[in-house]
Amino acid sequence: MALVRERRQLNLRLPLPENSERRPRFPLPLPPSTITTTNSSSSTTTITAADLEKLHVLGHGNGGTVYKVRHKHTSAIYALKVVHEDSDTAIRRQILREVSILRRTDSPYVIRCHGVYDIPGGDIAICMQYMDMGTLETLMKNGTKFSEQLLSRICFQVLSGLEYLHSHKIIHRDLKPSNILVNNKIEVKISDFGVSKIMHRTLDPCNSYVGTCAYMSPERFDPDTYGGNYNGYAGDIWSLGLTLLELFMGHFPYLLEGQRPDWATLMCAICFDEPPSLPESASEIFKNFIQCCLQKDSSKRWSATQLLSHPFVRDIELKST
């Protein structure tokens, strides 16, 4: 169990469970070393590993490194996630899971994969869309104040991405500010599908301890009490509600600013305390939206499609995505 870090880096990750949940239930052959992509002019471009020039490191973690890279011939900028050969087996399994899911997705609200490479020596690399502002967590750490108007715009895009994923039977299972990428146009993309799951059967179990426990819904810990007609997708909606609360309040909603609990304390708070709520200064529409996300009984939680009709987001118009 990882120790809780400083508040801005809250990362109560749980280890991947043993046995069947650690084994992906869909085939995960490594994709070919190039992927042909289509750009806005309807022409096709094939990106190879040799085409990419590393500019600098964007970040480290989880057994790999993310680089900002430039295409040598087109000067297009991408992000290259490299998982190193000596990474833990579970980490490499996660990257293969992510590859499989990214190859299935095509949504303006989900990060786009432009190529996957099996690098000599054992490294695996994914070339992805570059988002120049980093993550929502990055903005929060840098002091960005998230107004309701800004959050409604962000929320509309995340919900649209979740609606797409859920309609394709994909559950993210680790939605949080650090897994939502953003650019300078405030376009956001859902990313990091290493612990996601594809639902092959309606009754596939989804109450596993993968992801970040701070953002897990009550039924992930106690499905008998809070599961209702739980189908797995409702957990992503709970995580969205906590994410919006955190961005608005500037700190994780179950904690006082600067508080550093252990994961067991946090799990008990999620299961036994009332869901966190917005301060009095928030609008009634925003408060109601959060309540629709943070119903402890998962069967009462609104779906992504239902939430897109909520007054908090339904009138959002985006000029581009």
UniProtKB/TrEMBL annotation:
Transmembrane segments: none annotated. The keyword Nucleotide-binding applies. Keywords: ATP-binding, Kinase, Nucleotide-binding, Phosphoprotein, Serine/threonine-protein kinase, Transferase. The keyword Transferase applies. GO terms for molecular function: ATP binding; MAP kinase kinase activity; protein serine/threonine kinase activity. Residues 33-45 have a biased composition (Low complexity). Its EC number is 2.7.12.2. ATP binds at residue 81. InterPro entries: Kinase-like_dom_sf, Prot_kinase_dom, Protein_kinase_ATP_BS, Ser/Thr_kinase_AS. It holds the Pfam family Pkinase. Residues 52-313 form the Protein kinase domain. It catalyses: L-tyrosyl-[protein] + ATP = O-phospho-L-tyrosyl-[protein] + ADP + H(+); L-seryl-[protein] + ATP = O-phospho-L-seryl-[protein] + ADP + H(+); L-threonyl-[protein] + ATP = O-phospho-L-threonyl-[protein] + ADP + H(+). It comes from the Eukaryota. GO terms for biological process: pollen-pistil interaction; response to other organism; response to stress. It is an enzyme of class 2 (transferase). Residues 15-45 are annotated as: Disordered. Belongs to the protein kinase superfamily. STE Ser/Thr protein kinase family. MAP kinase kinase subfamily. This is mitogen-activated protein kinase kinase.
